[in-house]
Amino acid sequence: MKLDKVLFLNENQVGDVLLSTALIKAFHDQYPASYTALYVSSDVAPLVTGLPFLNEVVVYDKGDPVWPVVRKIWRFDAALMLDFKYRSAVMPFLARIPIRAGVRHKRGLFMNCAVERDPQEVMHYEPWNFAKMIDKAAGLKIHLDEANAKPYIVEAPVTVQTTVDRIFQTLDAAKITVVIAPFTSCEGKNWPAERYAEFCRRFRTKYPVQFLITGVHREYHPECFSNASMLDLRDQTSLEEVSEIIRRADYFIGSCSAPLHMSAAWETPSVALYSSTSPLEWAPRQKTEIIQHLLPCSPCNVTGETCRCEELPFACASAITVDEVLAAMERLMHRYPVKR
Fold first, then answer.
1. Nearest C-alpha neighbor of 264 from the set 120, 146, 152, 135
2. Is residue 54 part of a domain?
């Protein structure tokens, strides 16, 4: 197989793209002479542009002109699709890329190396699932150690670091900094806000701490995050700023979402709260305490506002107790103590 120019495509959300960087780095390590490009949306591009194993980041958003992108990727040797987007298959087809490999989904007409989803993917870390899919679809073996795989993210530019400097200057440097990303875009992944508030209250009675609340949905339960020990930054920081905040933090707590994968990239010790999704597939492999209550229906991968458990919706999330999160944090602090 000719691999002089290879295009990886992932137009999914931030966390999915960050997970795909583990595979792309493994590919680059194996084929260092290959020109490697990554096709993503504009909101994700700043987090991956400049990674040393990427020669180019190709940006496309729905509604943008198609032909400038087609010209950029014209006649690449292979297009390896790591998402399920229709456009990710159309672009390589229009660019006459000879190998177009990925999961078939609804776009098989534009692919010549398509496979079905593996029903066992919930049992393996997502970067490894990418590698297995590419091997099955195109016969390209990318050697990836599932146990050691991790996402990658670029360091923030000076302007972003300066903004985060100002945030950290308001904090007491003697205190532990814990970043919490309480809400995702998917109701089924969220731990109840009242539990986060109780955790923070009980944790600060034992340890000097400053909580930085990041992520989205500032309008959700503002009263839970208004304590003097909490700095509520939800919807007030860019993705690059959130990444830099997590990089500087001592610890991180959150559900299966982009900030958790950022913490994995920066190797910030984390407590990961899992409910409807599989931690075997999505959770970081390093410096992470995972909490999950497996119900008969787990994992269901239902992440919207509906739940198959009609009697007690999202019981898997509400089953996680404050005591469990406190214990997980203390285990992290014992293994990865803060060094000032």
1. 152
2. yes
Alpha carbon distance 103, 89 (integer Å): 10
The answer to whether residues 298 and 167 belong to one domain is: yes
What is the mean pLDDT of the segment spanning 252-261? Answer: 96
Task: List strands edge to edge, sheet with 288-292.
Answer: 230-232, 209-213, 176-181, 251-255, 270-274, 288-292
Does residue 46 share a domain with residue 81?
yes
Name the pTM for this structure. 0.93
Residue 144 within any structural domain of the chain = no
Q: At what angle do helices 322-335 and 193-204 cross, to 10 degrees?
A: 50
pLDDT in tens, 12-45: 999 999 999 999 999 999 999 999 999 999 999 9
Bond before 299 cis per omega within 30 degrees = yes
Please report, for the domain that includes residue 14, its CATH number. 3.40.50.2000
Neighbour-count burial for 138-149, b at 16+ CB within 10 Å, e otherwise: bebebebebeeb
Q: What is the pLDDT of residues 194-226, one digit of tens each?
A: 999 999 999 999 999 999 999 988 899 999 999
Using CB atoms within 10 A of its CB, is residue 79 exposed (0-12), middle (13-18) or buried (19+)? buried
Three-state SS for 135? helix
Q: Which domain holds residue 61?
A: 5-138
